[in-house]
Amino acid sequence: MAERLSAVKGMNDLLPPDSSRWEWVEATVRSLMQRYGYQSVRTPIVEPTALFVRGLGEVTDIVEKEMYSFEDRLNGDQLTLRPEGTAGVVRAMVEHSFLREGGRRLFYVGPMFRHERPQKGRYRQFHQVGVEVLGFPGPDVDAEIILLTRSLWRELGLVEGRDITLEINSLGQPDERRAHREALIRHLEAHADLLDDDARRRLHSNPLRVLDTKNPAMQAMVDAAPRLIDFLGPESMAHFDGVRRVLDAVGLAYRINPRLVRGMDYYNLTVFEWTTDKLGSQATVCGGGRYDGLIEQLGGKPSPGVGWGLGLERLLLLLETVGIEAPSAAPGAYAIVPSEVALPAVVPVLEALRAAGVAVVMHPGGAEGRGSMKSQFKKADASGARFALIFGDEELARGEVAVKPLRDAQATQALRPLADVGAWAHELRNA
Ligand code: ATP
Ligand code: MG
């Protein structure tokens, strides 16, 4: 036998039954997006490396050490497997001049790639749902994209406050960040002995990111650092208050976390994260914020933007941890076919049922025949189907099929006419 090959480390196969749980979540996402008026986009998985270097900033975890970058062997182009979705969506909007006629509400679902140490909730290929709302400057859309996430938690059965909680902050505008940055650098320099290597490197290039440290030895020093929120002017505060007013009006509870800075350089004003205490250190399920400078930075006409990214693996782990299961994906019916001879009569009936919206699985034949009735019933049971359709010789001779309930001990078997599937198909349809 040939040697077996395995998947790349940190990249997972998604197989049944997990795949149907994923599809349930994705279908819920798509249905919600439609209700909020968000349109889907699909951009390439491979982009020019420069897009992420320019879009995310050079001194970020992603650009410094997490990107899968390579040279195209045929033409020498520098390419990268996308580590996140925002830069690609903004590139596409600019490239196709999509913002000329006003703003856009967009969403995407797809794989992202980061070279990280694989662990529970952290993989090298993972999947994100993301929204990007481009062209609208007001705090109302910041609040809207947060409300969209709350609706998603609710539709999936998660409880805010218990399973998942919201933190928000404002990063202000570049000039406010500059004033804060100077004060912050002074504070960090005064505690230079406490800084680790990462922090020392970022002290001057990106001191805000030092606040994002996970190093316990630096926590107290970082807690005492000057807070950006104290440097915000009246306009930034008004924007922040605008977001809060909408969240308050709909009763969405949140915590203001002045330390919340997010990983990418492009954020300004509103930033937020939904975190959970149920997934260990992979606590952030969804994070996002405003990025009013990004479109211009990527060559577009200056235009505001706001968005979030949500890790599907973490969301699914959370659902599993709190015991939320997807609605059953079992078929409505399982067709038991005692002999091959019956097939020409059976298959048209199954096709008519499927056309009428019934999920029906046929017991398969083969060189060894179809197996005993007993083994066919076993398969019917294992399929989770609510009914077995028994196409026995006697029933077929009378132009009928026996419909046997498999899950309801009280219900009795009934005969149904083959010629008029439309009259009884509804009995088999899943609710
Ligand atoms: P973390 O601090 O956990 O590394 P991040 O700030 O790098 O997260 P973002 O870039 O904001 O994450 O991505 C948005 C979401 O995508 C995260 O909140 C998380 O749910 C998910 N995510 C990010 N990286 C991974 C990964 N390597 N594996 C699985 N999910 C991920
Ligand atoms: Mg990360």
Automatic annotation (TrEMBL):
<dbReference type="GO" id="GO:0005524">
    <property type="term" value="F:ATP binding"/>
</dbReference>
<protein>
    <recommendedName>
        <fullName>Histidine--tRNA ligase</fullName>
        <ecNumber>6.1.1.21</ecNumber>
    </recommendedName>
</protein>
<feature type="binding site">
    <location>
        <position position="128"/>
    </location>
    <ligand>
        <name>L-histidine</name>
    </ligand>
</feature>
<comment type="similarity">
    <text>Belongs to the class-II aminoacyl-tRNA synthetase family.</text>
</comment>
<feature type="binding site">
    <location>
        <begin position="266"/>
        <end position="267"/>
    </location>
    <ligand>
        <name>L-histidine</name>
    </ligand>
</feature>
<dbReference type="GO" id="GO:0005737">
    <property type="term" value="C:cytoplasm"/>
</dbReference>
<feature type="binding site">
    <location>
        <position position="114"/>
    </location>
    <ligand>
        <name>L-histidine</name>
    </ligand>
</feature>
<dbReference type="Pfam" id="PF03129">
    <property type="entry name" value="HGTP_anticodon"/>
</dbReference>
<keyword id="KW-0547">Nucleotide-binding</keyword>
<feature type="domain" description="Aminoacyl-transfer RNA synthetases class-II family profile">
    <location>
        <begin position="1"/>
        <end position="338"/>
    </location>
</feature>
<dbReference type="GO" id="GO:0004821">
    <property type="term" value="F:histidine-tRNA ligase activity"/>
</dbReference>
<feature type="binding site">
    <location>
        <begin position="84"/>
        <end position="86"/>
    </location>
    <ligand>
        <name>L-histidine</name>
    </ligand>
</feature>
<feature type="binding site">
    <location>
        <position position="262"/>
    </location>
    <ligand>
        <name>L-histidine</name>
    </ligand>
</feature>
<keyword id="KW-0436">Ligase</keyword>
<dbReference type="Pfam" id="PF13393">
    <property type="entry name" value="tRNA-synt_His"/>
</dbReference>
<dbReference type="InterPro" id="IPR006195">
    <property type="entry name" value="aa-tRNA-synth_II"/>
</dbReference>
<keyword id="KW-0030">Aminoacyl-tRNA synthetase</keyword>
<dbReference type="InterPro" id="IPR004516">
    <property type="entry name" value="HisRS/HisZ"/>
</dbReference>
<dbReference type="GO" id="GO:0006427">
    <property type="term" value="P:histidyl-tRNA aminoacylation"/>
</dbReference>
<keyword id="KW-0067">ATP-binding</keyword>
<dbReference type="InterPro" id="IPR015807">
    <property type="entry name" value="His-tRNA-ligase"/>
</dbReference>
<feature type="binding site">
    <location>
        <position position="132"/>
    </location>
    <ligand>
        <name>L-histidine</name>
    </ligand>
</feature>
<comment type="subunit">
    <text>Homodimer.</text>
</comment>
<dbReference type="InterPro" id="IPR041715">
    <property type="entry name" value="HisRS-like_core"/>
</dbReference>
<keyword id="KW-0963">Cytoplasm</keyword>
<dbReference type="InterPro" id="IPR045864">
    <property type="entry name" value="aa-tRNA-synth_II/BPL/LPL"/>
</dbReference>
<keyword id="KW-0648">Protein biosynthesis</keyword>
<dbReference type="InterPro" id="IPR004154">
    <property type="entry name" value="Anticodon-bd"/>
</dbReference>
<dbReference type="InterPro" id="IPR036621">
    <property type="entry name" value="Anticodon-bd_dom_sf"/>
</dbReference>
